[in-house]
Amino acid sequence: MQQWQYAFPSIPDVLRQNRCLCPCKPFEEKEYYIPIRRTSNWFGAVAFCNSAGMEIAEVLNADEANALRQVMIEEESDDDMEFFWIGANDLGVQGTHRWGLTGRPVTYSNWTVGEPNNALSDDGSNQTERCAAIAKDTFEWNDFQCTQHKKFVCQQFRDE
After folding, report:
1. What's the whole-model pTM score?
2. What domain range is 116 assigned to?
3. Is the pLDDT confidence value at 7 over 80?
4. Using an 8 Å Cβ cutoff, are 24 and 104 in contact?
C-alpha cells in the first residue's frame, strides 16, 4: 500500500499565499515612521500612511510601546507638536477603542489619568474626542477631536 506524505505549509507561507486586507504578519517586527514636517487630522494621517504602503501605528504591547518611544525620542523636537496620532479610536462605538483599519480591540494602552474622556469641543461644534494620540514628553495617551492637526506615526513590517 502506498503511503501519502503531505507537508503542511508554514504560517508565513499561508499568509504569503493568502494576502490579507490589512497586514497579517504576527511574527515579524514593526518599524515606526514619523513623516518629517507633516501634520494632518487623524483621517488624513490614516490616508497618508496607506498611500505610503504603511498603516497608522498600532501599539499592541509594552515592547511595541518601548520601540515607539525610541522613535519618538529620536524625532527632531518641535515644541508646537506635543502629540502624535496613533490608530486607536472609538469612532465605531463610543467608549470601545479599536485600532485604525484592522478593527482589533485595543487591549494594551497607556492612557493619561482621566483619559479617554470623550470631552466635547470648546468651539460649540459638539465634536467629541474620539481619536488617540501619544504625548511626546510622557508617552501617555490622550483622546482628541479627530479633526485636529498633529504629527502622526505610521508603521510597516520589516522585510525578512
Report:
1. 0.77
2. 28-157
3. no
4. no
